[in-house]
Every structure is written in C-alpha cells, then in structure tokens.
Write a structure and sequence with these properties.
The chain is built from seven helices and seven strands, in the order H-H-H-E-H-E-E-H-E-E-H-H-E-E. It is α+β, with helices and mostly antiparallel strands. Helix 2 packs antiparallel against helix 3, helix 4 packs parallel to helix 5 and helix 5 packs antiparallel against helix 7. The chain is rod-shaped and about 160 Å long. It starts with 11 loop residues before the first helix and ends in an 11-residue tail after the last strand.
C-alpha cells in the first residue's frame, strides 16, 4: 500500500509559535520593569520609551512570524494534499497491477486446461478410430478363430499322450486363445459394446483383484500392499471393466519392477469422487514416452511381451465411465497411475469394511 503523508512535515509551525510566545514574554517583562522603575524613581521616561520601541519591534516581528506561520501551514496543507494524491495514485496502480497479475494467472490456467483438452480430444479421436476398426472386423475375425479353436480342442481330446503332434495342437490352441483375447480387447474400443452398470465398492474390488496378483508377485519377490480408505468408496460402473483396468495396471506395474519391489494399491474419496491408485517402485517412464502411453499399440516392452493395448484399454474404459486417469512417473522413481471416477451413494446398509 502507498505511504500516507508524514505528520512531521509541519514541524516548523510549532517552532515559530514558540518563538512568538517567547518574544511576547520578553516584551511584557520589559514593560513591567519599566512601570516598576517609574513607580520607584518617578522618572525613567527614557527606559519606558525604549520598552515601547522594543514592543513595536516585537509586534512587527510577531506579525512577520505569524505571516510566515500562515504561509508554512498553507504549504503543509498543499504538501499533504500532494502526498495524499500520490498515495491514492499508487494505490490505484497497485490494484491495477494486481488485477493484471490475476488476469495473467487466469489466462495461464485456461491455456493449461485448453492444452489438456486438446490432448484428450486427440486421444479420444485415436481411440475412436480404433473403435471403428474394431467394430468393422472383430466379428469377422472372431468367427474363424472360434472355428479354429473348436477343431483344435476336438483334435486335442482325440490325441494320445504320446502323439508327436500333441505339442503343435496345444500351441495352436494357446495362440488362438491369445488372438481371441486381443479381439475382445479391441471390441472394448467399440461404442457398440453393451455395458451394464451397478454399484461397485472400490475397496472390495481392490481386495478381490489383489488376489490375482499374489502368485506372480511372490514369484518376482514383489510385496503387494493395500492402503484402503475407511469409508466405502462406491461408484456406478461395470464391475468387470473396472477389474480389467486394475488387472492391466497391476500387470504393467509387475512388468516394470522385475525381480523385486513394492506394488501398492490405494483407494480414497476426494471432493465427491472415488479414486484408486496403482503405484510401483519400478524403473519409471521416460518423459518422452509419457505423452504416448495411452496410444493404441504403443509399448516400450520387448517384442512379443505386450500388445500396447493395456493402458489404451484402461483409458477408454475410464473415459466411458466419465472418469479421468493420470500418470505420475520419473525414471528411477517408479510410477503411480491414478483413476478418478464420479462417486455414487453407497448401497443401503453398506458400512466401512
């Protein structure tokens, strides 16, 4: 804020008043002395005249001082007005500067939101393209796969244990099942896929899904930790699809950690939303790759170890549920994937786990 006028700016005025008062006292003292001298001696007219002359001079000086005092007060008032005007001007400029700063901050926030919206739109367009592709070919691919799988399984049942072609038939069945799973993942991108919803309690979902990780986690010497919120975290969602998101995120986390680490599963409620997180202590994701991890078929894994659809599938499922998915990661510092979904009222009779 601007400084106010200094009250000490008019310190000369009291000094002038003190000088006037002192001179008046001197004149009065001289006049009284002269009067006493006349009373005592009967003749001291010269001294009286001197006192009268001095009184005239003092009066003249007093008038000069009073005029100077009035001028000084006038100048002080003008100075105070100037200082007040400057203070008001500084206040106005300060408020204007603060308003400009707030506007710049708001513009930066809006620009950041716009950039995020553009990225989400681009991602949605990519996923929509994959969805249209999946809707067009999935059924055509599924039909021959079903025929291949059916005949291969029938052939396997007729084979003897020592049949030299038994391994080849088992390989056909295994790879056909893998292709069918890939087609099912592609179908998730199709808006034509039917989706039923129900009240899903995230704590219970995380607990049941964590059991699917335990065997693999033990084989990798990875510790699975659950940090669940006390109150029920309920969302209106398709349970199977949310479990698929958790499974995909957990599988990615285990892939990132290799032979040792900690896989943490968290839930919480925040501002009316329900959240779950999957965090690992793995190698992390390079900055140049983080912008592409949700793209269909993008993967940093070795050939044959990933289709590049896991995170894309998770992103699409979360988007279909009106939620958002965020990734925090740095090389050497692990990765945390956070899924935020609109909260729903818990079912009647639901309580803390």
């Amino acid at each position: 804020m601007a400084e106010r006028p200094d009250p000490g700016a008019g310190d000369e005025a009291p000094a002038l008043r003190a000088e006037i008062a002192r001179l008046n006292k001197v004149v009065k003292a001289l006049i009284k002395g002269a009067e006493r001298g006349l009373s005592a001696q009967g003749t001291s007219f010269g001294m009286f005249q001197t006192a009268v002359m001095l009184d005239d001079r003092v009066r003249g000086r007093t008038q000069e001082l009073e005029a100077a005092l009035r001028e000084n007060e006038k100048m002080n008032r003008a100075l105070q007005r100037t200082q007040l005007e400057k203070a008001q001007e500084i206040d106005e400029r300060t408020r204007a500067y603060e308003a400009v700063a707030r506007e710049k901050e708001q513009q930066a926030t809006l620009f950041h939101r716009l950039e995020n919206a553009k990225l989400e739109l681009l991602q949605s367009e990519k996923l929509a393209s994959v969805g249209r592709l999946a809707a067009g070919i999935a059924h055509e691919v599924n039909n021959p796969l079903a025929v291949i799988l059916g005949f291969a399984q029938a052939l396997q049942r007729r084979q003897a244990e020592d049949d030299p072609n038994r391994l080849a038939v088992a390989s056909i069945i295994r790879e056909t099942v893998r292709c069918k799973a890939l087609v099912e993942e592609l179908l998730t991108f199709s808006r034509a896929a039917k989706r039923t919803t129900e009240a899903v309690e995230l704590n219970e979902l995380v607990r049941s899904t964590a059991t699917l990780f335990e065997a693999r986690a033990r084989s990798q010497n990875v510790r699975v930790v659950s940090e669940l919120c006390e109150a029920p975290a309920v969302v209106d969602a398709n349970r199977d699809q949310l479990q698929q998101v958790l499974v995909n995120l957990g599988a990615n986390a285990l892939d990132a950690m290799g032979d040792a680490g900690v896989l943490t599963l968290r839930t919480r409620r925040e501002n009316g939303a329900a959240l779950f997180e999957v965090a690992d202590t793995g190698a992390g994701i390079a900055e140049e790759d983080r912008a592409r991890i949700f793209e269909p078929f993008f993967t940093t894994k070795e050939v044959g170890k990933g289709t590049g659809l896991g995170l894309s599938l998770a992103y699409e499922i979360v988007q279909q549920h009106g939620g958002a998915i965020e990734v925090q990661s740095a090389l050497g510092a692990g990765t945390t994937v956070r899924v935020r979904l609109p909260g729903a009222a818990p079912p009647a009779g639901a309580g803390a786990p």
